[in-house]
C-alpha cells in the first residue's frame, strides 16, 4: 500500500525521489504480491510525474507477476493521472475526477497598467527571450510561438505515456486529450480506468489472504510538531468554549 496524496513536485506532498524510494523498498520485500497506490492528486510537475511513471513501468517490466493497482479517491487529474496511467489497472469511485490530460501555463500582461499609472519598467537581459514571461512587458510573437511549442511537446509526452499505459483499453475521443476531466463512470466508458472499486474492494477480491503493509512518506518533524500543536490548541479552544 502506497498512499499518494497531494500536489506533485519538488518540496510538495508527492516528490519523485521519495516515492521512487518507497516503490524500491516495497519491491525489496520477498513476500510482495502486489502494489496498491491510493491516489488523490490534482497534479503538478510533469517532470516528477514522468519520473514516477517511468519507475512504475520499469517495475512492471522487471516483475511481471506483481500487479500495480491505482485506486483513485477524490481525483487523479493531470499529473495525478499521468502517474496512474502507468499502473496495471486503475479503479475509481463513480464520482471521482479523472483525466485532465493537458498542460497549462498561465500569467498576465500588466504592461498597459504600468503605462496608465505612469510607471516605467527597467529590465536588463542578455538573450532576447530571457524575460519572455515578464508580466510587465508584452510577449513577442516569437516568444508566444516558442513557448506554445514547449507546452505542445510536454502535452505530447503526456499523451504518449497514457497511450502506452492504457493500450487497447483506451477509447480516443475528441475530449480525452483535451484537458477535460471526467467522472469515474465516464472514465470507465472511455477506458481511462478499468472499473469502479474502492481500496477495500481491491484488497478483498485481489488479495484476500494478504496482509497490507504501508509504505508512506516520512513527515518532516516540524510539520508533525505543527500538526500536533494545532490539534492541542484546537482541543483547548473547544474545551474552553464548552466550559463557557
Automatic annotation (TrEMBL):
Residue stretches making up the Peptidase S49 domain? 65-204
Keyword field contains Protease? yes
Ordered alphabetically, the record's keywords are:
Hydrolase, Protease, Serine protease
SUPFAM superfamilies the record matches: ClpP/crotonase
- Which N-terminal stretch is annotated as signal sequence? none
UniProt xrefs under InterPro entries: ClpP/crotonase-like_dom_sf, Pept_S49_SppA, Peptidase_S49, S49_SppA_C
Q: Does the keyword Protease apply?
A: yes
Pfam families linked: Peptidase_S49
Supply the NCBIfam families for this chain.
Answer: SppA_dom
The similarity annotation says: Belongs to the peptidase S49 family.
The molecule here is called Signal peptide peptidase SppA
Q: Which gene encodes it?
A: sppA
Amino acid at each position: 500500500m502506497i498512499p499518494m496524496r497531494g500536489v506533485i513536485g519538488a518540496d510538495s506532498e508527492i516528490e519523485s525521489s521519495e516515492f521512487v524510494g518507497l516503490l524500491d523498498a516495497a519491491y525489496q520485500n520477498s513476500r510482495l504480491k502486489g502494489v496498491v497506490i491510493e491516489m488523490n492528486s490534482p497534479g503538478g510537475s510533469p517532470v516528477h510525474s514522468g519520473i514516477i511513471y517511468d519507475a512504475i513501468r520499469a517495475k512492471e517490466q522487471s516483475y511481471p507477476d506483481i500487479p500495480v493497482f491505482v485506486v483513485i479517491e477524490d481525483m487523479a487529474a493531470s499529473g495525478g493521472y499521468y502517474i496512474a496511467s502507468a499502473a496495471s489497472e486503475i479503479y475509481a469511485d463513480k464520482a471521482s475526477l479523472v483525466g485532465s490530460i493537458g498542460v497549462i501555463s498561465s500569467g498576465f500582461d500588466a504592461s498597459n497598467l504600468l503605462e496608465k499609472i505612469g510607471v516605467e519598467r527597467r529590465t536588463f537581459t542578455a538573450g532576447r527571450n530571457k524575460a519572455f514571461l515578464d508580466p510587465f512587458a508584452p510577449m513577442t510573437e516569437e516568444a508566444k510561438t516558442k513557448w506554445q511549442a514547449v507546452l505542445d511537446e510536454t502535452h505530447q509526452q503526456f499523451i504518449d505515456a497514457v497511450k502506452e499505459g492504457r493500450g487497447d483499453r483506451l477509447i480516443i475521443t475528441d475530449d480525452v486529450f483535451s484537458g477535460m476531466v471526467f467522472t469515474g463512470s465516464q472514465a470507465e466508458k472511455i477506458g481511462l480506468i478499468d472499473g469502479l472499486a474502492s481500496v477495500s474492494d481491491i484488497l478483498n477480491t485481489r488479495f484476500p489472504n494478504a496482509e497490507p503493509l504501508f509504505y508512506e512518506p516520512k513527515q518532516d518533524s516540524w510539520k508533525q510538531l505543527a500538526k500536533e500543536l494545532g490539534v492541542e490548541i484546537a482541543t483547548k479552544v473547544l474545551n474552553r468554549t464548552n466550559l463557557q
